[in-house]
Design brief:
By secondary structure, this protein is α/β, with parallel strands linked by helices. It has 15 helices and ten strands. The protein has two domains: 2-122 and 202-307, Malonyl-Coenzyme A Acyl Carrier Protein, domain 2 (3-Layer(aba) Sandwich); 128-194, Malonyl-CoA ACP transacylase, ACP-binding (Alpha-Beta Plaits), CATH 3.30.70.250. It has helices at 18-23, 25-38, 42-48, 51-55, 57-75, 79-82, 92-99, 105-122, 138-149, 171-181, 204-215, 238-250, 255-264, 278-285, 297-307; strands at residues 2-6, 85-88, 128-134, 154-161, 164-170, 188-191, 226-227, 234-235, 269-273, 290-294.
Length: 308
């Protein structure tokens, strides 16, 4: 069995999608459709930068999705014929739902633009922060977060793999967590260059904005079940998926469990579309799984031969 997985924020880079657009008409069409939906020249920003502008959450989120869907459409397959499940890391869950046909491309782009803006506006710049705890599992990360909170928000945002957990919350609490992490047993604590504290209770205003927006969008049943970030379980019911996308804004991304549960369900091959971020996490979670990262036209052609 095979699962298609889609990367999240941090996988953006200036130049993304440019070579693919030059080699693939479907990819070029994806970028044009996203530009039209957003009323901005996002593809030019992806291609030429500047990096600081591409990194802005409201640009990075639709850009990463567009790149993933450009790869998927260039592959030119019916999803249900080649994959048993899809999943995505944070914003990648929207890419997964677009690939699975739950959202159309224009709606996905608009939702992610809004999600990026709402997440950015939820907490004034400088008041929130995130940090990666390396050499720490979920239980240790939760202990560090609890010790550092001291009345402020400090929670686990992403349970990425057995050796990398991300925490999120008020800047003071995250600074305290970084200071005590090593003494409490983590190998290292690294502050992340993000503009807001994602996936923590401080994002509640953004969750409300997404609840409103998702209420107006057509969301159909996915072609294959989607492993949800907030439950690490497969889901196909549109109303449940809608609610889970709202919960996802403040909730923990349960990536480690999602991958382990897909593997337990029979998935032997994980194909990352549009990035090379998730593959190494998958290998640390389930070392026996086969992992393929598909970014270039050559990668796509190689995968097409394998799944033909």
């Amino acid at each position: 069995m095979r699962a298609f997985i889609f990367p999240g924020q941090g996988s953006q880079a200036v130049g993304m999608g440019a070579a693919l657009a030059g080699a693939s008409v479907p990819a070029k069409d994806v970028f044009a459709e996203v530009d039209e939906a957003l009323g901005q020249n996002l593809f030019r920003l992806m291609r030429d930068g500047p990096d600081e502008e591409l990194k802005l959450t409201e640009n990075a989120q639709p850009a990463i999705m567009a790149n993933s869907i450009a790869v998927f459409r260039t592959l030119g397959v019916r999803l249900a014929d080649v994959a048993s499940f899809v999943a995505g890391h944070s914003l990648g869950e929207y890419s997964a739902l677009c690939a699975a046909g739950s959202f159309d491309l224009a709606s996905t782009a608009k939702l992610l633009k809004l999600r990026g803006q709402a997440m950015q506006q939820a907490v004034p710049v400088g008041q929130g922060a995130m940090a990666a705890l390396l050499g720490a599992d979920l239980a240790l990360a939760q202990k560090i977060a609890e010790a550092a909170a001291q009345g402020e928000v400090c929670t686990v945002a992403n349970d990425n793999d057995p050796s990398q957990v991300v925490i999120s919350g008020h800047k003071g609490a995250i600074d305290r967590a970084i200071a005590i992490a090593k003494d409490m047993g983590a190998k290292r604590a690294v502050p992340l260059p993000v503009s807001a504290p994602f996936h923590c209770p401080l994002m509640q205003p953004a969750a409300e904005a997404m609840r409103d927006a998702l209420g107006y969008v057509v969301l159909g049943p996915p072609a294959v079940p989607v492993f949800a970030n907030v439950t690490a379980q497969p889901e196909s019911d549109p109303d449940t998926i809608r609610n889970q996308l709202v919960e996802q804004v403040t909730g923990m991304v349960r990536w480690r469990e999602s991958v382990a549960n897909m593997f337990d369900a029979g998935v032997e091959e994980f194909v990352e579309l549009g990035g090379k971020v998730l593959g190494s996490m998958v290998k640390r979670i389930v070392p026996d799984a086969q992992v393929t990262s598909v970014v270039t036209i050559e990668d796509i052609e190689a995968l097409a031969k394998e799944i033909a």
